[in-house]
Design brief:
It comes from Streptomyces bikiniensis. By secondary structure, this protein is mainly beta. The chain contains one helix and four strands; from the N terminus they run E-E-E-E-H. The two termini are about 25 Å apart.
Length: about 60
C-alpha cells in the first residue's frame, strides 16, 4: 500500500513568497534598476515550513 503525503505547508512568515527583490534606488549605466534579493529567514527561501515531526526526526 502506498503512502500519500500531504502537500507542504506554506511558510507563515512569508506566505509562500520566500524571495523578494528590493530596489536600491540607483540605476545601472544602461538604465535598469539595481535590486537586492532578500530571502525569508524562517524557511530559508523554500516557501514551505517543515513539520515538527521532521525536525525531531532529523535530530536523532
Amino acid at each position: 500500500m502506498s503512502q500519500t503525503s500531504l502537500p507542504p505547508r506554506v511558510c507563515s512568515h512569508c506566505d509562500g513568497f520566500p524571495v523578494v527583490h528590493i530596489t536600491t534606488g540607483t540605476r545601472t549605466p544602461d538604465g535598469q534598476r539595481r535590486t537586492l534579493a532578500a530571502t525569508c529567514p524562517a524557511c530559508k527561501g523554500t516557501g514551505h515550513r517543515t513539520t515538527t515531526a521532521a525536525l525531531t526526526h532529523a535530530g536523532k
